[in-house]
C-alpha cells in the first residue's frame, strides 16, 4: 500500500489539479478511482469532472448505493467513509480525515495551500507515519501484512 501526499502551491487550484490527476491515473492505470470528499464538495467536483475541458469530460458517478449489480464507471465520488474504507482501487482523499485501515491499492492525499489545510495535512501525515510504524512492526512478526510507504510531492 502506498500513500502519496501532493502539496499544492498557491497557483494551483484544488479541483483543477484533481481533474488533471484523475486524467493521468486513467491513462496510466486500469484501476478504478474513488474521490473521497466532504458532502459540500461533491456537487462542485461533479460539475468540474463533466466540464473541465470544453472538448472532453471524465465519466464518473456520485456513489449513492452498492453498485455491484451494474456497470461501475471508472471514477466514483463519494462522501461515505464506509465505502472509502472498502474501496480497493486508487483513492484520492480530499477530506480532513486520515483513512487508516482501508483496502485501497494507493491513496493520494491532496493538500490545498491554505494554512488550515496544510496543518490538517501534517496531522494526517503523522497519523499515517504512526500507522506505518505499527504495520511495519507487525510485518517483522507476520509476513502476510503489506508494507506501507509514504511519499510527499510538492506541486509547483
Automatic annotation (TrEMBL):
It comes from the Bacteria. One of its GO terms (molecular function) is DNA-directed DNA polymerase activity. GO terms for biological process: DNA replication; positive regulation of DNA-templated DNA replication initiation. PANTHER family: DNA POLYMERASE III SUBUNIT CHI. This is DNA polymerase III chi subunit, HolC. It comes from Moraxella macacae 0408225. The lineage of its organism: Bacteria, Pseudomonadati, Pseudomonadota, Gammaproteobacteria, Moraxellales.
Amino acid at each position: 500500500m502506498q500513500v502519496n501526499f501532493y502539496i499544492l502551491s498557491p497557483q494551483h487550484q484544488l479541483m483543477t489539479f484533481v481533474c488533471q490527476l484523475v486524467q493521468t491515473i486513467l491513462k496510466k492505470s486500469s484501476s478504478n478511482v474513488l474521490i473521497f470528499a466532504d458532502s459540500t464538495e461533491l456537487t462542485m467536483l461533479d460539475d468540474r469532472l463533466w466540464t473541465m475541458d470544453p472538448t472532453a469530460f471524465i465519466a464518473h458517478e456520485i456513489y449513492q448505493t452498492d453498485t455491484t449489480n451494474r456497470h461501475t464507471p471508472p471514477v466514483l465520488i463519494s462522501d461515505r467513509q464506509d465505502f472509502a474504507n472498502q474501496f480497493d482501487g486508487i483513492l484520492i482523499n480530499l477530506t480532513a480525515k486520515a483513512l487508516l485501515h482501508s483496502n485501497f491499492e494507493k491513496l493520494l492525499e491532496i493538500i490545498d495551500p491554505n494554512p488550515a489545510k496544510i496543518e490538517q495535512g501534517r496531522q494526517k501525515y503523522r497519523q499515517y507515519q504512526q500507522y506505518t510504524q505499527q504495520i511495519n512492526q507487525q510485518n517483522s512478526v507476520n509476513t502476510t501484512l503489506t508494507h506501507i510507504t509514504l511519499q510527499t510531492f510538492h506541486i509547483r
